[in-house]
Automatic annotation (TrEMBL):
Record has Metal-binding as a keyword: yes
Provenance organism: Niveibacterium umoris
UniProt keyword annotations, A-Z: 4Fe-4S, Iron, Iron-sulfur, Metal-binding, Oxidoreductase
Database matches in Pfam families: 2Fe-2S_thioredx, Complex1_51K, NADH_4Fe-4S
Database matches in InterPro entries: NADH-UbQ_OxRdtase_51kDa_CS, Nuo51_FMN-bd, Nuo51_FMN-bd_sf, NuoE_N, Nuop51_4Fe4S-bd, Nuop51_4Fe4S-bd_sf, Thioredoxin-like_sf
The protein's name in its UniProt record: [NiFe] hydrogenase diaphorase moiety large subunit
PROSITE patterns, alphabetized: COMPLEX1_51K_1 (PS00644), COMPLEX1_51K_2 (PS00645)
Amino acid sequence: MPLSSSLDRVLARISARYRDDPYQLLQMLRAVQASYSHVPPAAIDFFARHLRLPHSQVQGVVEFYAFLHEVPRGRYDIRFSDNITDQMLGSRGLMNRLCERLGVKPGVPRRDGSVTVDLTSCTGMSDQGPAAMVNGLAVTRLDATRIDEMADLVDAGIALEAWPRDWFAVRDNIRRTGPMLDLHMTPGAALKAAIARGAASTLSELSRSGLRGRGGAGYLTAHKWRFCMEAPGVQRFVVCNADEGEPGTFKDRVLLNRFSGELFEGMALAGFVVGARQGFLYLRGEYEYLLPHLEAVLERCREEGLLGSNLFGSGFDFDISIHLGAGAYICGEESALIESLEGKRGQARVRPPFPAVRGYADKPTVVNNVQTFIQAAQVAAMGSAWFSSLGTEKSRGTVLLSISGDVPKRGIYEYPFGVSIGEVLGDCGATAVQAIQIGGPSGHLIGASEFHRKIAFEDLPTTGSLMVFDWTRDVVAVVQNFARFFQHESCGFCTPCRVGTTVMRQLIDKVVEGKATTADLNEMESAGQVTRALSHCGLGQTAPNPMLDALAHFRAAFEARIHDGGGDPGFDLDAELSEARSMFGADVAKEGHHGG
Ligand code: SF4
């Protein structure tokens, strides 16, 4: 193919770096975005031609991901985390201050092309916010002084490498350890034990441990691995879901930093059990700063014989590569993550078939969360009894909580499953607590009357996020933040979610503006129920949770802001959703959102 321009030559080099593999399209587009601060139309044309993909597919990928743009961003691309906990720490005011200093409007590049200032969803730094990302790298603990200095650095055109290093420091903030965080395994211990036991016995050991996926639905890990092992076909894959996008969750960030060796060993263990030779770590784009560390650990594992060919003389080969996401919460859903891993828009697949039967490249694929793989490795090395002696009947082992919000000691806490909310709040020093959001926005909002409840799959399950709101906080504003989040993150594929998340956001905005009526509150409930029942994937099915919980437990906060004098609901939900009902019927199967 003749190379028509210097741009084409650069694009050809990028494509070659990824072996001209269409599944690597997202990685290629990320590289283009990093070099040119956008993906120009010529690049879309090039990849469509060069990779023999439909032009609409390449265009669709660029449009889908929040970190890819068709028009140039600034050379400094600054995005403030807009999670509710960052807002509580003053992020919006700091962003406005920076915009004023730099003379820009949010989302609009400065005339000289030097800088863009914008918002983004949670960056996974709720324990050390307000946080932002500059050219994809996390900056923590922002304050007015840092913002002013940042404006000076941008104006002076100082390269990012010369910015103060402590701005980019990310702390682990581990506050309470337990058996999992305290365990320091000898590298290779899990794999050696598994090879000595054999795949079938290792699976039995895992089954006896009762380990359930720590990413969402909580399927028994051994069952998932068995489905994959028994699925027809020769080639299989192992995928680690490190797309920790649930606002308020940051446990995987800490595990990726501290326990990456154990994680890779857990993935190799899964490969040994199910018969896979290749693993992928799908890392959320917001954690790009961890990439050099993770690549270095992978290299060390290869040098030490923990990855590669003929591991420990068993004849088993296994290796892992890392793929970066590009800012799409829906990619935490395991089938959407697989689509993204294949270089496509991250859209949830129709299930069944589940990924364990037909996943990456339509081959049987184990998808588990970071913590799940680490704990599987720990079980293989320490035995099932070590693990199953902790926790409750249906929730064995320990839970990691990422605690943020109105607490003096934000950070990571490990507890045996079954711990009460009250005990956790006591440990992190929370006082005068009005409400907590457990499991992120897709989880549940509960008030003080329920703080006796236990964290466990059989009572209050969680993906690890626990946000605390004291009595100074406005619960309605919290729900508004979550409603905006879901509307923004809805992939738009199905009408119930696309319309439902929009309706819910419009209604909550109306409440906040003091324009809502009692009829609007009823409409909110109705919109929530319909969205929950008819949405195609876990995002739409869980998006109404905070609003419905708030209406159930904090209705007075809503009623205090409504007036029944002149407000007009002004929206016919049934009419809006009639198309969706006819498309999907009312009995759409429920699915968990995030892979376990
Ligand atoms: S429920 Fe929402 S996120 Fe899921 S497929 Fe439908 S539109 Fe996309």
